[in-house]
Amino acid sequence: MVDTDIIKFLDLKKVNHSFEPALGDAVRRVAESGWYLLGNEVKTFEREYASFIGTEYAVGCANGLDALILILQAYMEMGVLKPGDEVIVPANTYIATILAITENGLTPVLVEPDPDTLQIDDSRIEVAINARTRAVMIVHLYGKCAYTERIGEICRKHELLLIEDNAQAHGCRFGERRTGSLGHAAGHSFYPGKNLGALGDGGAVTTNDRALAETIRAIANYGSQKKYVFRYCGRNSRLDEIQAAALGVKLPRLDEDNARRREVAGRYFRNISNPRVTLPYGGRIQGRDNVFHIMPIFCDERDGLKEYLARNGVETIIHYPIPPHRQECYSRTPMARMSLPVTERIAATELSLPMSPAITDSEVDRVIDLINRF
Ligand SMILES: *Cc1c(COP(=O)(O)O)cnc(C)c1O
Q1: What residues form DSSP beta bridges with 329?
Q2: Residue 167 beta carbon below 6 angstroms from any ligand 1 atom
Q3: Is-contact 203 64, C-beta < 8 A?
Q4: pTM given for the model
Q5: Which atom of ligand 1 is nearest to the CA of 293?
Q6: How far is CA 339 from the centre of its chain?
Q7: Strands 295-299 and 350-353, how do they pair?
Q8: How far apart are CA 129 and CA 88, in angstroms?
């Protein structure tokens, strides 16, 4: 089989090529400007991104993990959170969500997902709340909106912070609002493979809370608001000018790209018919509350299916083979002793199919045909 016959999980070269010549022009503009950090490109992108998400503020930072860490650290500095406070979080998420919590000396309280939506099960949140609970961090996993009216009501009733991990769901909707504007603050990642991806690492926090935005900006700048005066023990976490310029080129097409992702997903939904394979979301084709960062399917013979697809030139990825509570880094924490059957079953059976705005219908049809003959 020649290399060009391989259907990539995500052909980033093709995705980014579709933004030429504007993308290359933007990079060159910054390269030639002589100004690489904390400049107008970042300022402009922050304004555009805040307006796109529907928040007052967007603060650029180095990556998505930092965005989440900065939110929680800022709340600690503001006296809203203190060490040992509990943060409710879905058990089936990427490790970064949990790392942001433990990094700040806070305690993650893992809650199982709803096997149908794959998002945090809102009927299991209230029983996880106790006197130490201070926040709920939802993750719009796979690009599907995790927020529900019930989650909003629970947070209001118990006076909890609602923080969104929007690393996989740029552009996703809840009604007319966007994810990233639904809670008190949201962390975004611009890792190259995300729906809005830079040409390297990047991240942002969105919020309507001015004090929070200012605190985050200071912490991300060594803890300083005034040159050489350090109010916080901060860090260096910046979105650089080249990444901001690249993101500024890609943002205006995000809704269109997400619509194409939904179209691709619709094709998978309509045509995958192998009884050994289970479609996500009860097999229901999704609306604007899903931007399909990931197209997950489920199969009891997942490893065999993955290998069969690879043999036939189709790249797939597992999101994620080992859930956070089973990771070695948390082996000496109470999380390690938890039994989370829904999460563990997802980890054992999930397989992510090729998905991007650049994949062609005939490539998708080839993947479908192979799956149906498995
Ligand atoms: C990618 C991702 C992150 C981390 O973003 P980085 O930019 O890679 O640090 C956090 N949470 C989730 C759910 C992610 O998918």
Answers
A1: none
A2: yes
A3: yes
A4: 0.97
A5: 15
A6: 25
A7: antiparallel
A8: 8
